[in-house]
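Bumping with the actual sequence this time:
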Amino acid sequence: MSFWEYANPVKFLKLSGSLLPYVSILAAITIIAGLSWGFFFTPDDYKQGATVKILYVHVPSAFVAINAWFMMLVASIIWLVRRHHVSALAAKAAAPIGIAMTIIGLVTGALWGQPMWGTWWEWDPKLTSFLILFLFYLGYIILWAAVEDPDTAADLTSVLCIVGSVFAVLSRYATNFWNQGLHQDASLSIDKEEHVADVFYYPLIVVMAGFVLLFVALVLLNTRSEIMKRRAGAIMVRSGI
């Protein structure tokens, strides 16, 4: 069995229909468990107080926002190289989820930053690149809506996705590229000296797993909807409606 078999819309619909209930339930359980653990069973930070618990929403949403763009990049490259419509539609399906996570990341970042930094916003390298990533998401969605021919729209948005990947990388690694800036280093790191204390780390891992599962579930759901809309449009064209 080849992975590329699922580029066939019929096989993708069958597989995604089977997976979607399980992924959705697992996502709900994991998010509820992780947030409950983090908000109710972890102490306040000695410096940040209860404000630190914003990380249980901010970090997972920012993580998904950045990595959703990389998923779109892979799907877009597959479209450009192999012309599989499911990959183009999967990239399109991921964009609304990515922009929603970006907005959540920006808002929670402001709520977290104001008491810590004394300001809602700072033109910090990481914050600025994350804001630009939001604008690329917005442009991507608008471009899909503005171009009537779906294959042309897929081509143009794929190129935009490749260009925007620069800012997805900067959003992830800006603190490594520039030493200055208010934003701290990554909350999660292989180096135990750099990531948050274990009491916050483990529930954060659970929440992040839940957000990733939620992203997968929503991408499957949205991709199914895009395939069905494409099918309905083709039927209408053939019927002369």
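The tokens above came from a reply further down the thread. The mean pLDDT is 87.
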